[in-house]
Amino acid sequence: MLVVDNLYAGYGKSEVLVGTSLTVKQGTVVGLIGPNGAGKTTTMRAISGELKPTKGTVMLDSKPVQGLDASRIARLGLAHSPEGRRVFGPLSVEDNLLLGAYHRLPRFFGFRSRAAAELERVYDLFPRLMERRRQSAGTLSGGEQQMLAIGRALMAQPKIMLLDEPSMGLAPVVVDEVFSIISRLKESGITLLLVEQSASRAFEVADYAYVMERGRVVMEGKPAVLQQDARMVAAYLG
């Protein structure tokens, strides 16, 4: 589904990724963990086209996509729910959701009717968004905005979703709710690459995990195996 091989990327003269490689198989949830500054978010941006890699390959469904514009990669079936949520505050909740379907539906006639089924699916997953569908997105709580960001990505009917730091800045009870939703997405068969600073939370839902440090993957394996590794326990689970 998604294969990243020897990826290099950065900002200006500062190289952040120095040979990152990972694989996400169809129907699995893969966790990407590591300390702040390890390159996790940069990896997501380089995969989704927000950032152009300087070296390496990104294969989506066996097609090379490195260097393509983010809009083209989205049309090929990748949806990115970014760090910090980035909802459009002045727009309503529903208009934010509809923007997620923009690239795959008619631009004018029939847009809303064709999007109705996906809206229903998202509202079923997030009843709170249904209640607030006419409300400005900027007035939502942090947890509600995270739900909106995930829902907007789902509106694209993606083959794979990148979910970056869904627990950032949220109260523990809201984090529990967000990870319950991620578990439901997993049960539905969605393919997901999850960046999460909390290794223990990522391990709750991941089928496989990669650990990043200083721009490259330094450990990988199934969560049950990684949890037995002394270095892993000392650095991330202690």
Strand and helix map with partners:
Elements: E1 2-11, E2 14-24, E3 29-33, H1 40-48, E4 55-60, E5 63-64, H2 70-75, E6 78-81, H3 93-100, H4 111-125, H5 127-131, H6 142-154, E7 160-164, H7 172-187, E8 191-195, H8 199-205, E9 208-213, E10 216-221, H9 223-226, H10 230-237
Parallel strand pairs: 3-8, 3-9, 6-7, 7-8
Antiparallel strand pairs: 1-2, 1-4, 4-5, 9-10
Helix pairs in contact: 3-6
In short:
By secondary structure, this protein is α/β, with parallel strands linked by helices. It is built from 10 helices and 10 strands.
Give a written overview of the molecule.
The structure is a single chain. The chain has 238 residues and is an alpha/beta fold. The chain is built from ten helices and ten strands. 38% of the residues lie in helices and 25% in strands.
Low-confidence stretches: none
Instruction: Name the CATH class of the domain at 2-86 and 157-237.
Output: Alpha Beta
Structural shape: globular
Count of extended strands: 10
CATH hierarchy: architecture of the domain at 2-86 and 157-237: 3-Layer(aba) Sandwich
Question: What's the total helix number?
Answer: 10
Structural class: alpha/beta
- Measured distance between first and last alpha carbons: 33 Å
Give the spatial strand order of the biggest sheet. Answer: 6-7-8-3-9-10
Order of helices and strands: EEEHEEHEHHHHEHEHEEHH
Largest sheet: 6 strands, mixed
What CATH calls the topology of the domain at 2-86 and 157-237 is Rossmann fold
The average pLDDT score comes to 89
CATH superfamily of the domain at 2-86 and 157-237: P-loop containing nucleotide triphosphate hydrolases
Based on CA atoms alone, the radius of gyration comes out at 18 Å
What percent strand? Answer: 25-35%
Give the helix level as a range of percent. 25-40%
